[in-house]
Amino acid sequence: MMAQVEILQPGLYSSIQDFGRYGYREFGVPTSGAMDRQAAKLANLLLKNEPDASVMEITLQGPKMAFSGTAQIVITGAQLSPELDGGELQNNQVVQVMAGQVLSFRRRKCGYRAYLAIKGGFQTEAVLGSRSWCDGVTPHSRLEKGVKLPFLESKRASVSKYSSVKVDEHITSEVVEAFRGPEFDLLQPSEKEALQKWHFSAAKESNRMGIQFQEKMENNLKPILTGPVLPGTVQLTPSGTLIALMRDGQTTGGYPRILQLTETGINTLVQKMPGEKLRIKLLDYS
Amino acid sequence: MEVFPKIKRMGEGAILVEFEPEITPEILAKVLKLKKFLQKKLAKQKVEVTNTYNSLLIYYVSSIENAYNEIHGLFEEFSGANIEEIIESKLFHIPVCYSDVFALDLDEISRVKKLAKEEIIRLHSSVDYLVYFTGFLPGFLYLGGLPQVLHFSRRDHPRPQVQKGAVGIGEKQTGIYPQTSPGGWNIIGNSPVKLFDLAADKPCPISAGDRLRFYQVDLEEHQRISELVERGEFRIKSEKL
């Protein structure tokens, strides 16, 4: 039977995400999908869902929501002090929820984005083959008060009381892995060195489209003829801003592409609070 | 001497192929031929192939170990066999209303260029534009072929909101905003057609390699077409090239 999660308070910024849409990048449609795929996948696997079932992505301050039916849920990623009817919950643990119970979040302990998976996945509308919300593509781009998210009610089942998984390393790691981007070799030797030595941090202006770094890198690079970009492409603007394109990022861009983050690099970066330190680790193509 | 095309890796799961960095129909034709060849060869894999003016990006959705070798192999096959891919393209006729209601910057262009507004409209709707690729926003077409006399620098202060359907000029380019968004181009009109329509079988009717031509409609006709578009009853007129 279909039940619903009703949003009582929206929190800072939450949305429904799966692994994104496929086959529309050539028409300018971003892939979208969970910013931290590894955490989203873990949440689904703990519930024995498909790894790319749709989950709720929660940024920094979690929403408050009520369940209209029984459900099993798992929260992964950032530790945002989840509570069920005021009782503390652990991340990475299957939790039984009864009809009428309220899930809320309190203080952030670590990480920046948490994932709430539900047995069977959220049954929200799919657009172009994906349930991922994206501004300009889907009717909603973020959770608002009163939104009702359908899910398939699950039978009450015994759930293990202890978590088998510790905090994922990438959530607290400050090392963001990257390969050289197509225009990396246009950088001066000193700039290449700075990229690997400096400490960077995400700026407040960051969002699901792109994460900007606070630290500016002066450079003399010229704009390129608009070329293809991907989630994880790091562009360097003439004013020295480094922008790491993220899951909702546009599909083409005209700034030099100096780095390409690895999947793990993306998953690590999206867990950094604005201001938190990180370093770039350059990998070689084997 | 630089040798083209260049084949570069871009992270774990993507390969970039770059031809000469030029905006010409000849380079685009090379890019689109290779694109079609690769799309056919890789049809069974989960791969997205996108293009820009001179680049192709082959993006393996689940990254695989030997993507780079695979693309190299396919590329050699492509160059060696001198494969002829037929690119089927269409000419689309796009209605634009150049009325003052929409054309926020037409007076300014007319003043600076010392060209009558009617002449600007005539020039803008007198040529077939080549669609190089779609980017920036879903359904935003990068068009080549704007008559040189209409080239006009971007606005110093981008507008926080450019209306959906706005037709603009930015430097050497002209284009249509498929959705309301911030934008720095000079707005000279509005098209009622949808270039990104989720309700349609093909959400983006126009692809790289197609051509389009603008034709002028008055306010009343703009309104009439808008209503048809809303009801899903408007078909953009097109012909095979």
TrEMBL record, chain A:
Q: Coiled-coil intervals in this record?
A: none
Could you tell me one molecular function GO term of this UniProt entry? Answer: ATP binding
Domain Carboxyltransferase: from-to ranges: 26-285
Entry keywords, A to Z = ATP-binding, Hydrolase, Nucleotide-binding
Q: Mind telling me which InterPro entries this protein's record contains? A: CT_A_B, Cyclophilin-like_dom_sf, PxpC
Q: Does the keyword Plastid apply?
A: no
Does the record carry ATP-binding as a key word? yes
One Pfam match, by short name?
CT_A_B
- Superkingdom of origin: Bacteria
Protein name per Swiss-Prot or TrEMBL: Biotin-dependent carboxyltransferase family protein
- What species is given as this protein's source? Salinimicrobium profundisediminis
TrEMBL record, chain B:
Spell out the SUPFAM superfamilies in the cross-references. Cyclophilin-like, PH0987 N-terminal domain-like
UniProt GO MF annotations: 5-oxoprolinase (ATP-hydrolyzing) activity; ATP binding
Every copy of the Carboxyltransferase domain together lies at 5-206
Supply the Pfam families for this chain.
CT_C_D (PF02682)
Going by the UniProt record, its keywords in alphabetical order are:
ATP-binding, Hydrolase, Membrane, Nucleotide-binding, Transmembrane, Transmembrane helix
Q: Which InterPro entries match?
A: CT_C_D, Cyclophilin-like_dom_sf, PxpB
Entry keyword Transmembrane helix:
yes
**What are its E.C. numbers?**
3.5.2.9
Q: Which residue ranges run through the membrane?
A: 129-150
PANTHER family in UniProt? 5-OXOPROLINASE SUBUNIT B
Which protein are we looking at? 5-oxoprolinase subunit PxpB
